[in-house]
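Final report, closing paragraph on structural work. Over the funding period we assembled a curated collection of sequence-structure pairs, and we close with a single example.
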Amino acid sequence: MDLGIRGRKAIVAGGSAGLGAASAQALAAEGVELFISARGRERLEDFAAQVAQETGAKVTAVVADHGTEAGRATLLAACPEPDILVITCSPPAMTEDYLEITPQDYRDSVETTLIGPIELMRATLEGMAERGFGRVVNIATIGAKAPWQARLLSGPTRSALLNFVHAVSKRYIARNVTMNNLLPGMFHTATSLERFTQMAAEKGTTYEQEEFAFAKKRLRIPAGRFGQPEELAPFCAMLCGAQASFITGQSLVIDGGGITSLL
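Its predicted structure, as stored:
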């Protein structure tokens, strides 16, 4: 299916690995020109070169932290008029005991997962509306909808982000600008690989055994496993497509069946 976005320009903030990288690759396959940002230069530039080679898309690597004012300025200088804005970041550390979280931990989380996305949207939405096309997708977390003590550095701020998107989306839908969120559960990423490989080494088990135990017993994921980034990326691309003009203010859960709703 042709999503009708060939030649469009997209910022993928925080897109050098994991779910952001897979989403960037899905957009590149649709012929979108990419501006991918991340804090680490080497991995970002290697990934950008890989995507360009595999898809033929034009890809610009922008070393920037969108959780900072300077980083956002650098990113927007590289692509001042994006048609598509995809925002994600490396998940903040899990914290088993909320008493361990410091005020500075919360401030850092707010800057990266709430203020950063809001400011990027605020800087680009009016331009999208003036040009008559815009797509915003925040790749957030299931923790925004299903509170969990281990995710207190990402869930609460993402809940606030969902609130913001829902409210502001109504302002732009009539001008062909949509704003939506994806809420992933547990996925195979560099972060999960590091965490569960370490747990396996400490317990004398395997990564797969730790994954199954965490998914099936602790989180009670009916699928019995973590998701793959490639299982989320097509939904991100779809929400960025020309045909997605009647979907806005939504938060789509992709978590292997852990959270369900009749409404």
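The chain has two domains: 9-187+228-254, 188-226. The longest helix spans residues 103-131. We thank the funder for supporting this effort.
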